[in-house]
Amino acid sequence: MKKLIPAIFLTSTLFLHAASDIDFDGIDDQNDKCPNTPFSDLVNSRGCTTKSLYSKTSYDVIMGYNYASANPSIIGTSSSSAATLQADVYRGNFSAQLLTSYLKTSGDTTNSSGMGDTMLGAYYTFKPSDKLMIKTGVGVILPTYSTGYNNEATDYTGNIAAQYNITEKANIFGGYAHTIINDEDIPTVATYQNTNAFYGGVGYMGPKNSSFSLSYADSDSIYSDVDNIRTVGIGAYVPINQQWFTMANYKYGISDAASQNEFGVSLGYNF
What we know:
mainly beta, Porin, about 5% helix
């Protein structure tokens, strides 16, 4: 028996050495032409990487300010402003977003301030071709405010957006969103409805990764007896350096239900 144990140990050692796969890619070290490939890589029969499954996680935080003036022919002189906070997480084709705001409204008939909606969203982006990019998403809109008008229910939204690059510099884009409004109607005061929103436009890539856009948007109001909200707008994205960037936009209302003038500026940080 004492002579048998070393023999078994030696046989086992030789077997393990013969089947050694130090980088766990499924290719024996003796046949592995690319040793020490990352565990997340897909390899060919020679042990060399054909595709990496590793995705770096990145984040951004964006602080913004928005101002809007209402159509005076509808509700008199009125304006609203909002301080916004947005946080995004990106990993591979997936992303998630948190967006919240603090609102202040003043005018002939009302003066109020407080938290606005808070939205949580999840998105998936894919490229069917080199020129076409499609982004789909779902979200939940949390009523982190109080109005007293029975519109403090949780709403749900789904959306899809696409961008097609005509040239290296120019593109066209568009999107659609549907929101399920769960607020309860108030007899003789307000009747709520689900909303559909469409937008489209053209974009241009400027110097140093900046971009500019011209767009049109048409959205239902959450109130069934109010006309659609239609706007035309311009927007700009300008990087400051690898981490910091700025964005700005202006919208002009072309329907009575839309804000007559609306503009926003924001500052973001990537990390």
